[in-house]
Design goal:
Rossmann fold, two-stranded antiparallel sheet, alpha/beta, 2 domains, six-stranded parallel beta sheet, about 50% helix, homodimer
């Protein structure tokens, strides 16, 4: 097992009746809070009213940054930074998905830095260490940003998605209430759920590294659990247990517990350039690419068969058998069917009316401008990436 | 799923080459440290020399409390408290097992309180909130005390084991080096490993509560992993992977991650009064009592059969079948055989030359002086407890 360091200080309030603790967490840092969210959908929600009421009845002054985009722009971050500096705000509170939480983390760091422009931090022109307090109220089970210490921001002018990473921006508290995810529509539930699965697959399961018994078995179990509970949440949006399982699993995927000791280069996340070039939802991009990537590897490299076969049996629930290669192909097929039938997601770009005109751009991005992904599960050349993209048409 | 709050702030340094970070952690709190351990076995170890060297070369003044007992006495704690107060020590560093770590937690709390006697805190005569910093270097995979916030202390004069509990005594840092457990003899390895299993069985697996898919499946997986890796560590004491798995699993058992949302009353730990009355190792007491407790329940209460059968198949690895009751009995038999053959532990008191003369005392303690354990997996009367003890003869 590789040496590793683990610490995760986020205080999690999980469940239906925890919002009464919000003002206590906020007032640890000061009485001015910036509430950031994605716009009218949140502003009209009961959750939003409860949050504002909870803060205002406890003498907290609320500033508001609405309209945080799905891939949050650095200009929106900068707007929040200016508000924090102008009003002397101490806490940035996110209500929303990973994008809103990421936006708040970026605001928190830049607000205590010398610059008004988050991109100076992203490009490491300005050093930073401290940050305002971040508190997260996720409204979808997906990225797990509420317990991790990084964020991704889009610079539309440069056509670049990048981010910052540091202990100071890890949320001080996170309020995980499964009922806040009851209204997430089936399509977004499916995409968020597949994002959770992809985090595990990419960073802990299909890895070019030793499989440590504890972490690897735990990851496999969580994958299977998400695989089983996700269709329940899609069919029964108010099934508390299914929603709770997904919400907590999303945090586990990125809170460093399951990744402890693993060192790898996430390949599916590198390949998933559909969101950055075609504006597809990230989780949908992952759902489209994953089975094609598996098929491509399997047709060229027998050494993946055992891993894929194990995935088929232990995660997808197909019966075990002797012929590992056949089993591996069945596993990929089972995954594709799961995405199509149980998650109700498209599995080809053509179903979305999209073509391959962005593939060259995607390929370059996927390989980070270099020749291949050297530490990934199986290194891929730019040609490999392009071939995999073509399988998605 | 029950609402819950989760936070675990301990910084874990896991692996072979982490001790170089020790002085950084110590110097966060001050330059005077009390190093506590169990005596000559530790003092003559390479680990001890490395720790002292690491501290002294970084200008840390070291005070020493040796001879911490296996069930640490409140008088030993008080000795440490006096040293901390006299010398203005800021950090208490444990090198050893759960007893040493627990002793350090108790010292840390009392040293900042108004009293010189830890028992005033245990009996809640004196309120306490803050504590000196605690740092833990476990030398056996067992209690998981290095990431939790409670401790158990023995008052021999009163014949009582009790403790304190609070966020301030959770270790600030823990150095988990599997090679530090290479010298743990087979018997202690087995007892420590069974202690880990019992934590999961008692608090997350055989519980009178809903089984949440995520946490329950993870717990079952860790149980199976420990069941498989423990015999490896016994046979191959320097098997790094097996030792690492046990050491990290011990922390997972008590770091609140796996218990999140569960509410139960630990029954096996209540029944395990062999250590408090006959001076048996706690893990051995648990290993003796667990299969008898299962048999006793199974013979009287058909409703446990499904749970025990699942344990048999998913943890003990016996083949699944239709007849759940038969399967449940097989599961208990498999567990007893595992303890005897693979762990090499005695399964009856008579093998240790012990009799039932303490059973009345044990029974009273097990039920905490009350009639039964109302929230436990299956409530037991004092008569039930006594009957189970008799099965251990």
């Amino acid at each position: 097992m590789n040496d590793f360091q683990f610490q995760n200080t986020t205080k999690v309030y999980f469940g239906k009746d925890q919002l009464g603790h919000l003002h206590t967490e906020v007032l640890k840092f000061g009485d001015k809070v910036l509430v950031a969210h994605g716009g009218s959908f949140i502003r009209e929600s009961l959750l939003y009213k409860r949050v504002i009421n909870e803060l205002q009845t406890n003498a907290v002054t609320v500033y508001e940054l609405g309209e945080v985009e799905p891939n949050p722009r650095h200009t929106t971050v900068n707007k929040g930074v200016a508000m924090c500096k102008e009003h002397g705000i101490q806490t940035v509170l996110a209500i929303g998905g990973g994008s809103t939480i990421d936006c708040c983390k970026a605001i928190a760091a830049a607000a205590l830095s010398e610059t008004d422009n988050i991109w100076d931090l992203v490009e490491e022109k300005i050093a930073w260490k401290d940050a305002l307090a971040v508190i997260a109220i996720p409204t979808i089970a997906s990225t797990g940003s509420e317990m991790d210490k990084s964020c991704v921001i889009s610079n539309v002018e440069l056509g670049v998605k990048s981010g910052i990473n540091g202990e100071a921006i890890r949320p001080k508290a996170a309020f995980l209430d499964p009922t806040n995810t009851f209204t997430v529509p089936p399509m977004q539930t499916a995409c968020g759920g597949f994002d959770i699965m992809a985090h595990f697959l990419d960073m802990n399961y299909f890895v070019n590294a030793d499989k440590y018994p504890l972490q690897f078995n735990v990851v496999e179990t969580i994958l299977k659990t998400v695989r089983n509970q996700l269709p329940v949440a899609i069919k029964e949006p108010e099934n508390y247990e299914a929603r709770a399982t997904l919400l907590w699993a999303a945090s586990w995927a990125l809170n460093s517990f399951c990744t402890s000791g693993f060192k790898t280069q996430p390949q599916l996340h590198a390949l998933e350039q559909f969101s950055s070039t075609m504006d597809l939802t990230h989780g949908l991009g992952l759902a489209i690419i994953t089975p094609k990537w598996m098929t491509y590897l399997l047709e060229r490299d027998e050494t993946v068969a055992d891993d894929f076969a194990r995935f088929g049996v232990n995660v997808m629930g197909i019966p075990d058998s002797e012929d590992k290669k056949a089993l591996a192909f069945q596993a990929v097929e089972a995954l594709q069917q799961f995405i199509k039938d149980e998650l109700g997601l498209p599995v080809y770009l053509s179903e979305l009316g999209l073509d391959g005109s962005k593939f060259d751009e995607m390929t370059k991005k996927a390989c980070y401008g270099r020749k291949m992904l050297p530490l990934a599960y199986r290194p891929l050349t730019q040609e490999d990436c392009l071939n995999i993209y073509k399988m998605c048409l």
